[in-house]
Design a protein that fits this description.
By secondary structure, the protein is α/β, with parallel strands linked by helices. Helix content is 41%, strand content 18%. The protein is built from 11 helices and 8 strands. The chain has an 8-stranded mixed β-sheet with strand order 1-2-4-3-5-6-7-8, with helices on both faces. Strand 1 (2-6) and strand 2 form a beta hairpin.
């Protein structure tokens, strides 16, 4: 277990592999365990760092709400503790929002950035249907409950199209295994992060991003619809966009080989 003291909080982190540094930032209410199936491939070529955002997993759980810029500063502080001056970054969902804020507030620390299944926030964000958001709020509110099977049953349709779930029944078992390994996240701290997420926007500042940027999104995402990817693409200078056809919010699981190839080729060029 590795703990970094960052200002007044402690952040749990892990390092895997060696090479140029690569920082992975996870989304709402999920800890670093959620990178379980991607870390081995990244670690073949990169010094891969995963960590628990404030409020989740084995990191500190201070009172909230947790602002996105605050979590970006946490992330920058972790890099300082690890002696990493500049790194590639992948952020997914809320982690993509943290990554945007990181590159805006601490541009010298970001060599390149991948924004996965995320949005710019604020009035320009395109949110999922109300019934989808209701389920999302229910799922987040039950993060600490002890029944991973029923929790995954609620989560699956948020992450993947039903036809893909039916064709890949093992995904449920894999997610139940991953969830069972995660330290419980208190519902209150998950809600603290959600409050910060919905109070945040980077839309007006996106043209200030100078780091090479790759945007990856599934075109069947029901939580953060794919329209958000096109907004990011239009607002971030020189950004490139990779759409995963037929994929939902959990796009890496639907095309793990293809997405990994796109992302690592992007890193190789930058």
């Amino acid at each position: 277990m590795s703990i970094a003291k960052v200002d007044s909080i402690e952040l749990y982190y892990e390092e895997h592999g060696s090479g140029d540094p690569l920082l992975l930032i996870m989304g709402l209410a999920a800890d670093s365990t959620a990178w379980l199936f991607q870390v081995p491939d990244f670690a073949k070529n990169y010094r891969t760092i995963v960590f628990d955002n404030r409020g989740v997993g084995r990191s500190s759980k201070p009172t909230g709400p947790y602002a996105i810029h605050q979590m970006a500063d946490d992330t920058a502080g972790l890099l300082d503790v690890l002696g990493i001056a500049r790194t590639h970054v992948v952020g997914v969902s809320m982690g993509g929002m943290i990554a945007q804020e990181l590159v805006l507030r601490h541009p010298s620390k970001v060599r390149s950035v991948v924004l996965g299944c995320t949005m710019c926030g604020g009035a320009y964000a395109k949110l999922g249907a109300p019934e989808v958001l209701d389920v999302l709020i229910d799922v987040v509110s039950n993060m600490g409950k002890p029944d991973p099977v029923s929790w995954v049953d609620r989560q699956l349709p948020l992450l993947f199209p039903q036809a893909w779930i039916d064709a890949n029944p093992m995904i449920k078992d894999l997610l139940v295994m991953a969830v069972s390994m995660m330290p419980p996240t208190p519902p209150a701290t998950a809600q603290n992060a959600m409050a910060g997420m919905f109070g945040w926007s980077a839309y007006e500042r996106l043209p200030e991003i100078t780091a090479p940027t790759l945007i990856v999104h599934g075109d069947a995402d029901v939580i953060i619809p794919v329209d958000n990817a096109y907004i990011l693409k239009d607002r971030i200078p020189g950004a490139t966009l990779h759409i995963v056809p037929g994929a939902g919010h959990g796009y890496p699981a639907q095309d793990p080989v293809g997405v990994h190839a796109v992302v690592t080729e992007f890193f190789r060029r930058n």
